[in-house]
Amino acid sequence: xxxxxxxxxxxxxxxxxxxxxxxxxxxxxxxxxxxxxxxxxxxxxxxxxxxxxxxxxxxxxxxxxxxxxxxxxxxxxxxxxxxxxxxxxxxxxxxxxxxxxxxxxxxxxxxxxxxxxxxxxxxxxxxxxxxxxxxxxxxxxxxxxxxxxxxxxxxxxxxxxxxxxxxxxxxxxxxxxxxxxxxxxxxxxxxxxxxxxxxxxxxxxxxxxxxxxxxxxxxxxxxxxxxxxxxxxxxxxxxxxxxxxxxxxxxxxxxxxxxxxxxxxxxxxxxxxxxxxxx
Length: 279
Ligand code: ATR
Description:
Number of domains: 2
Bound molecules: 2'-monophosphoadenosine-5'-diphosphate
CATH superfamily of the largest domain: NAD(P)-binding Rossmann-like Domain
Strand order of the largest sheet: 2-1-3-5-6-4
Helix content: 25-40%
Shape: globular
Largest sheet: 6 strands, mixed
Order of helices and strands: EHEHEHEHEEHEHEHEHEEHEHHH
Number of helices: 12
CATH topology of the largest domain: Rossmann fold
Radius of gyration: 19 Å
């Protein structure tokens, strides 16, 4: 049976099988999506031999996204910008790579807040790692005007500025509180607030009352940071939608159907997150 998979190491916690197998069943496609634990030294071989395997593609998760970028035969502009591939697919036996993390964020935002417009807006991003880079790229693609970045390590912000140019500016942690009154979107892209990690301590007292506040963390489904934003009356966006929406394009590339992110799918994956959370 044809299939796709997700590769990573360790990989036990991946929710991608739940998402893709839900869609395979929903659209009546006779295929299976599996977890494949692949160690770092086997990634190149796994990806380059995909054309002769039973897989028609794969997702790539931490820590293999950069290796996948090096190994695939061709990448699109988005993956090149990020230097990381999260979705691998075959075209005429050529191994192709793309990255859907950024579009996963913007699609999630559009679905949950359909009247929110990014054009001309100023966003503030907390964090400057791979997730931040993907989201900044997608926000600029959608017409955001300025993106302030708050990060513990300044050199990483400078690297983002080099890559994206003057639309990206650094916000010193010391003045971040005053800057928050000017933004329309605030996004946590760090792992702070994730289960087992301390919460994100960002002071929100000056935050623009109508700013949309988002977190990419989805374990728990609502972080303390988001709860604090919601308690102030700000609209919020949790991280689970990004996970679901980043999966859409891979499914379409492999199986030829653009799948829908439904409330039913959201609840299915949310229940799984909660079940593991309660253990
Ligand atoms: P990812 O690819 O998932 O974005 P990453 O590249 O490791 O992961 O980036 C994680 C981001 O979270 C970084 O911006 C990191 O800050 P540094 O650049 O200073 O390392 C930020 N981060 C993670 N844990 C943090 C913490 N406890 N306090 C502040 N920032 C943190």
